[in-house]
Design a protein that fits this description.
mainly alpha, 3 helices, rod-shaped
């Protein structure tokens, strides 16, 4: 059975929301990437300070920065995974319309998985921000 133009038009309309979601995820990844860059820059400063004089505070800060780096990395990983799942949602919607197969359960499952991945990414990102703020408040004392 040949797909009708109206079926394809409907799928294009349905694919608009996931495309906006991809834009939001890309913006989130950009923010995470910026934070990762700042952590790496700070690590370089602390490593330089550590080469000059081995201070316990510098070693503790390096460990803290390593933890923050891991959190941001895993957050970026989850966000990219969510973006890939959203792409599969769009591809599944078009494939279902072209082949005239009901892929609604698969598309819904992929979308739920994408939302779970975004939730994980945001949770990890929030934890990294909490650690950064806590460390900054600790430095002021």
């Amino acid at each position: 059975m040949e797909p009708h133009l109206s079926d394809i038009s409907r799928v294009i309309q349905l694919a608009v929301a996931p495309v906006f979601l991809l834009t939001a995820i890309a913006t989130l990844i950009n923010a995470m990437n910026t934070r990762l860059g700042r952590i790496v820059d700070r690590r370089r400063v602390v490593q330089t300070r550590l080469k000059e004089d081995e201070q316990p505070e510098a070693l503790a800060e390096l460990a803290h920065l390593a933890r923050r780096t891991r959190l941001v990395y895993y957050s970026i990983f989850c966000a990219v995974f969510a973006a890939l799942l959203v792409c599969l949602v769009v591809a599944g919607a078009f494939l279902g319309a072209l082949v005239a197969v009901n892929l609604s359960q698969m598309v819904a499952s992929l979308f739920i998985a994408a939302m779970l991945a975004i939730i994980a990414a945001l949770g990890l990102f929030l934890r990294e921000i909490y650690l950064a703020v806590r460390a900054a408040a600790h430095e002021r004392l």
